[in-house]
Amino acid sequence: MKVLVINCGSSSLKYQLFDMDNEEVMVKGLVERIGIEGSKLIQEEGDDKYIIEENMKDHTEAVSHVFDALVDKDHGVIADLSEIDAVGHRVVHGGEKITKSDLIDKEVRAAIVEYQKFAPLHNPANLMGLEACEKLLPNVKNVAVFDTAFHQTMPKRTFLYGIDYKYYEEDAIRKYGFHGTSHNFITNKTAEVLGKSVEDLNMISAHLGNGSSICAVKNGKSYDTSMGLTPLEGLVMGTRSGDIDPSAVTYIMRKENLSPEEMENILNKKSGVFGVSGVSSDFRDLESAAKEGNDRAQAALDMFVTRVKRYIAGYMAEIGSCDAIVFTGGIGENSIKIREDIMAGFEQFGIKIDPEKNNVRGGCHVVSTDDSKVKVMVIATNEELMIARDTKSLVEA
C-alpha cells in the first residue's frame, strides 16, 4: 500500500509518500509561500532534488503541483496517481468530538470546521488540503489524524481550567493539548525499546522545538500535557510566551491600548525566547550568543530549561512511577547541552544522565547511566510515519 501524507500550514504544505509494505519514504517535499508571490515546491528523493517555482494561489493548486511532481517523468517516483491508495492528513484541532484518527465523513469534517475557532491559522488550511485531495483524487480514501486526539484520555482534574464551569459547558474552554501524533509515536517506540506493553508504560515525553510541549503518559495514555486550549500555553517557546499571569496580559492591553488580535499576535509571534533575548527564536543562535556573553540570551535559555524541569518533575509526581523520560523534537533530539542542563538536579531522585552516552543527536538512544532509577532517552520522532500507519490501518479496516 502506498500512502501519501499531507501536512498543510497556512501558507505551506509538507508531504511524504510512503510504501507501507516496508514503511519506507519513497519521496518527500515542501511547498512554500502558498498564496504569496514566490511560491516554490522542493521535492527530494535521495540525492535528486526537483524544484518548481510557480505562483500557487491556494492549496488546491499546491496539491496539484505535488501530484505533478510525484508522477514527473524525470523526477517522479510513481507512474500514475492511481498508485496512491490513501491520503493521511494532519489536522491540528478536533476538540472533544474527535478522540482518534478517522476516515473523513460529514461528522469529522464538521468538527474540523467547528474547531477553527481555536485553531484559526491551521484548521482552515488543513481543510483546504483535504478538499484539494478529494477533488483531484476522487476515488481515494482520506484520513484525518488530529494533534489533539491522543490527549482526549486526560481526566477532568488535568484538563479543566479554574474558571466558571459554564465556560467549559457552553464554550468547550479547556485544555486540549497538541503534538499528540508525536507523543503517541514516542510512547509506542519507548514501549518497544523497553520491551514493555504500552498499557504498562508510564513515561514523560518531552517534545522540544520551536514549539514545545511535555506530555505525562500513564498506562500508555496521555494523562496531562503542557499545551492548553491552544498551543500558546505551557513552556516558553521560540516566539510563544507559554505560561503567563493573565493579569499581565490585560495590563499590557490597557497600557498599550491593544486589541485582542494585537495581543494574541504579541504572545504568539513576538514573545518566548525571541522576546526575552532580542536575538532569535532559534536556540542555536541563542547558545552562540550566550557563549559570547549575551546575558539576555542566557536568561532566555535558563527560562526554557527551568520550565522544562518544572513540568517533568511535576508530571513524575502526577503519574506516580516513571519508566522513562524521553527527549524528542528538533531541540530534544539535537541539543546535547540543553538535555544535560534540564536533567541537572534530578540526581537527587536517582536519575542520572551519562555525558558520554548523551553525546548523540537523533536516532534512538538510552543516555542515562546504568544505575539511573529512570531511563533517560533520545528518540527521533516521526509524526508522518504515525499518520501513515493510522491511515493504512483505517483504510484496510
UniProtKB/TrEMBL annotation:
Binding site for ATP: K14, H207, L208, G209, N210, G211, D282, F283, R284, G330, I331, G332, E333, N334
Keywords in alphabetical order: ATP-binding, Cytoplasm, Kinase, Magnesium, Metal-binding, Nucleotide-binding, Transferase
Cofactors required: Mg(2+); Mn(2+)
Record EC number: 2.7.2.1
Gene3D superfamilies on file: 3.30.420.40
InterPro entries: Ac/propionate_kinase (IPR004372), Aliphatic_acid_kin_short-chain (IPR000890), Aliphatic_acid_kinase_CS (IPR023865), ATPase_NBD (IPR043129), SecA_motor_DEAD (IPR014018)
Limits of the SecA family profile domain: 1-313
Enzyme class: transferase
PROSITE patterns per record: ACETATE_KINASE_1, ACETATE_KINASE_2, SECA_MOTOR_DEAD
One Gene Ontology term, aspect cellular component: cytoplasm
Known pathway: Metabolic intermediate biosynthesis; acetyl-CoA biosynthesis; acetyl-CoA from acetate: step 1/2
Compartments where found: Cytoplasm
Active site: D147
Binding annotation for Mg(2+): N7, E383
Annotated site, Transition state stabilizer, chain positions: H179, R240
Note accompanying the cofactor annotation: Mg(2+). Can also accept Mn(2+).
Catalytic reactions on record: acetate + ATP = acetyl phosphate + ADP
BP GO terms, sorted: acetate metabolic process; acetyl-CoA biosynthetic process
Residues holding substrate: R90
Molecular function as annotated in GO: acetate kinase activity; ATP binding; magnesium ion binding
Record function comment: Catalyzes the formation of acetyl phosphate from acetate and ATP. Can also catalyze the reverse reaction.
Family classification: Belongs to the acetokinase family.
Quaternary structure and interacting proteins, as annotated: Homodimer.
Protein name: Acetate kinase
Organism annotation: Anaerococcus lactolyticus ATCC 51172
